[in-house]
Structure formats: C-alpha cells, structure tokens
C-alpha cells in the first residue's frame, strides 16, 4: 500500500512538472539523494583543497625564495637563464630531502659544468635514486619531473622550463579529470532555484577557465608574462566550482522557497488554468519530502 502511494505521488509530481513546464529542483529530491549529493560535493571540495596544497608544494621555491610566487610559475613553464629547475629545487624546497647536505653542491656543480651524462652516471644518479625517485617517478606521480633516468633529469637540469612532451602529458590528464568533476558538480548545481542567467554563466565559466588555464601553460613557455593568465584562469575556475558546491549544499538543506509564492506562480501558469483538479495537484506537489526514500 505504501509503495503504491509513493509511486502514485511520483507520477502526480511528474504530471505537474510536465503540464506546468516546471523543472526538477533540490526541493523535489529525496533525503537519500541529498545525502548522496552532499557526500559527493564535500569530497570534491576537500579534494580540490588538497590539490591546491599539492600545487603549492610542487612549484614553490623555484626562484630560491620560500613561498609560491609568480616567478616560480615563470621558471616552471618558461625557465630561467640564471637557474635551472633542478638547481632551484635543490636550493629550495627539495634541499631537505637530500640525505647529505654536501650533495647539493655536487648537483649544482654538475649543472654548472653542463650536466653531461658521464658525470651523471658516476655522481648524480646515485643521489637521485636514493633521495628523489621515490616521488619523481611516472608510476608514482606523472605530473612531477621524471628523475629515474638521464633524459628526464636533463630536462630539468638545463634552462628552458617544462618540456613540450611533459606539458602535453599533464594537460591531457588535467582536461579529462577536471572535465568530469565540473560536469557532475554542474549537473547538481542546475537543480538550484535561482536566476537562470546566473546559473548558466556559473555552469559554463569553469569549463572556459579550465581550457584557458591549460592553453596558458603552453603560451607561458614562450611568453613568461602569460603566467599571470595561468593564475587568473585557475582562480576563476576554483571560485566558480566553489560557488557551485556551497550554493548546492545550502539549497539542499537550508533553502526553502515561500510556498505561498510558489502556489501563486504555478496557479498563474496557462497550463493549469483549465484543470478541474488544480488544488489537488498543487497539494500533492508540495507533499512532505520526508515520505520519499
């Protein structure tokens, strides 16, 4: 009996939406759906914050100074005539990972002498294999420079910034992964009850910002000042995604549109003017959602 009443309620709500042209909103979903959606959005939000922390510790200190700066990004993508990525790392953030402090001077001297392969095999490879390849391996972290062989080390031991193959590798992972996240967060965000123009803008901007962000990596490799676009586009994507997450959670649990205003709005729709059972349909459409699974 309860199951049949529930199914009948679903059918009536669906009928009202079809006749009025109304769309599904957070107020129409069940408690179980709210819990599932909230767990997903909270997890994505925490994951994004962890990704920001990872970005900070990956890029900071490349200019030899503590903290993350625009110069660090320029060195990462464009390179620097005064220092290489490997040299900046062992003088900055990665110095603490060296077992012996004297190894820093060995690496810097090798870079200064031209970073040739014979000396790498004799003196540099043992240091990197012992202290660095635990993280700097494609199997562990494909976004970090590969320090397991000379070809990978040479990319960061010579001035020039990130190589084109490494940018392509990271960008294709970034595009596929972030696109899925933005799709699902946007899919939930469109259930919000708000101005439709604002909603469309907030849903579309993160995708445009993501594409601009990835494109700006390649441009920064040639034009270092374009690193400012990397920062701006990344921040824009993060702000819009954060807005989608926070507003969606708020409307799922705390936002309640005035029922009287909604009734007046629905009654004014032309599709309901000639319905004899108008009051019954409206009553069913606002039935307590706690009856849903």
What's the quick description here?
The chain has 12 helices and no strands.
H/E element sequence: HHHHHHHHHHHH
Radius of gyration: 27 Å
Task: List low-confidence stretches.
Answer: 16-21, 288-293
Task: Identify the quaternary structure here.
Answer: single chain
Summarize the amount of helix as a percent range: 55-70%
Number of distinct helices: 12
Q: SS-based structural class?
A: mainly alpha
> What profile does the largest beta sheet have?
none
Strand content: under 5%
Explain the overall architecture.
The chain is mainly alpha-helical. Among the domains are: 24-52 and 165-257; 84-158, no CATH class. It is built from 12 helices and no strands. Helix 5 (102-112) runs antiparallel to helix 6 and helix 9 (196-222) runs antiparallel to helix 10. The longest helix has 29 residues, at 31-59. The two termini are 15 Å apart. 21% of the residues are buried. Mean pLDDT is 80; it is low at 16-21 and 288-293.
């Amino acid at each position: 009996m309860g199951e049949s009443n529930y199914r009948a309620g679903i059918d009536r709500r669906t009928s009202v939406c079809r006749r009025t042209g109304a769309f599904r909103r957070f107020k129409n979903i069940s408690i179980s759906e709210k819990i599932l959606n909230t767990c997903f959005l909270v997890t994505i939000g925490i994951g994004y914050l962890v990704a920001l922390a990872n970005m900070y510790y990956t890029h900071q200190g490349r200019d030899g100074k503590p903290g993350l700066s625009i110069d660090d990004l320029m060195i990462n993508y464009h390179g620097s005539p005064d220092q290489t990525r490997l040299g900046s790392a062992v003088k900055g953030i990665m110095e603490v990972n060296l077992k012996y402090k004297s190894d820093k001077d060995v690496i810097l001297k090798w870079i200064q002498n031209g970073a040739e392969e014979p000396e790498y095999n004799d003196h540099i490879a043992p240091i990197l294999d012992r202290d660095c390849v635990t993280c700097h391996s494609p199997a562990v972290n494909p976004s970090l420079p590969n320090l397991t062989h000379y070809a990978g080390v040479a990319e960061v031991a010579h001035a020039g910034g990130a190589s084109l193959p490494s940018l392509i590798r990271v960008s294709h992972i970034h595009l596929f992964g972030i696109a899925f996240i933005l799709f699902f967060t946007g899919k939930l965000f469109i259930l919000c009850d708000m101005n439709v123009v604002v909603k469309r803008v907030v849903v579309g901007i993160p995708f445009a910002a993501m594409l601009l962000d990835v494109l700006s990596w390649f441009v920064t490799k040639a034009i270092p000042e374009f690193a400012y676009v990397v920062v701006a586009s990344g921040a824009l994507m993060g702000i819009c995604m954060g807005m989608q997450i926070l507003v969606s959670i708020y409307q799922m649990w705390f936002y309640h549109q005035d029922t009287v205003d909604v009734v007046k709005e629905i009654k004014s729709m032309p599709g309901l003017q000639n319905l004899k059972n108008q009051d019954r349909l409206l009553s069913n459409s606002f039935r307590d959602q706690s009856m849903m699974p």
